[in-house]
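Justification of resources, computational component.

The compute hours requested in this renewal are based largely on the per-chain cost of generating structure records like the one below. Each record pairs the submitted sequence with a full structure-token output. That output is archived, and it is also reused by downstream analysis tasks.
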Amino acid sequence: MHLSRLLTVGLLPQLSYTLSIPSRRAVDCGFSTSANSGDTCESFASSWGLTVDELKSLNPGVSCPKIDTDGFYCVVGTVTDDEPTVASPSSTTRLSTQVPSPTVKSTSTVKPSPTKEPSGNGIETPGAIQDGMVSNCNKFHEVKSTTTCQGILNYNKISLEDFVKWNPAVGKDCSNLWQGTSACVGIIGGSPSPTTTAKPSPTTPGNAIKTPTPIQDGMVPNCNKFHFIGDTTTCQGILNYDKISLADFVKWNPAVGKDCSNLWKGTNACVGVIGSTPTPTTTTKPPTNSNGITTPLPIQDGMVSNCNKFHPVKSTTTCQGILDYNKITLADFVKWNPAVGKDCSNLWQNTNACVGVVGFTPTPTSTAGNGIKTPSPIQSGMVKNCIKFHHIKPTTTCQGVLDYNKITLAQFFKWNPAVGKDCSGLWKDTHACVGVA
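The structure output for this chain reads:
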């Protein structure tokens, strides 16, 4: 008789028994990955929700505390031991979970203020929490510096849809999860149902092309060409290298989002399908518009054809900086460069953006009519009756602004709509309104 232990990412209940170490052990690995530069056994194991002992159990030959970053290590799998020499428990604990996809979305470092509002269901709500948590929550998960959304979902056997519904402030893609808070992972009347274990071994779809893992959800099944997403990979870099359009890339990899803002590091993306022939854009010779102005490359998709003035986007460039320097509005900038998104959250580095078109004359923004001098730069849409401002420095957080000025997120968003309902669009080196007449 054999005892199997399934070690899974993010689900690590304490075992209530002790086993002797058998002389032989078999590991059926479901998912392997490599360590990052500078990782130790402890940091690598922790990043995948494992203890060092569990990492060693899944990888019998691993040498700790250092870890070889060139190797691949099993982080999800089944360890089968020979009959132990001491009494084993009467039943085997098997945990079922979806294998998480690597994520580049790190938790925010803002420090929210504790809330003292009770949930009203008799369950004490820990502080701090993010705004908008449902009032009938009866189970909470503390968000630490190493906590990931996928880890929360796996550990509590809940779906992303439920998690976002119970914690709307985290955002649809869970990109706004705050450290130092407690998130809702269960409600009265809700019974989490664990999903079946997904074994991420490479698949071979009907096209006989082996699909590497991991991948993001929803990739088309007829993919025949893949691109690995490294730490420095950008969407534009993928499009340029593989000579494909953003529209095709999103169609083949819908999980990345329409603006490619949800591209995950450490995954493989589809960059070609059966029957498609990449059509390269003219990259060897910069295009010349009908206005006689040569357009510098690279650019983001959809730039207007009558552009006559360009701004290089460097690593330190911000949208607000572009607007201020060129004396243009966000509305015009988005109209000329639609790929950057309505809130300019998808501005790509190392591209050239359009900041002027034929027939356009820059018009400085008007000053406020309330007698209060408005500092600049500011984000678009700030209310006209603002009388108090807060300078947003590189270390400033939304929660810090709210706490310092004793205002609510609802008020802050109302006075500064460009920051977004979850304050994810707050720009550094701008001035935000924190008080009105």
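The two ends are 77 Å apart (CA to CA). Residues 282-364 form one domain.
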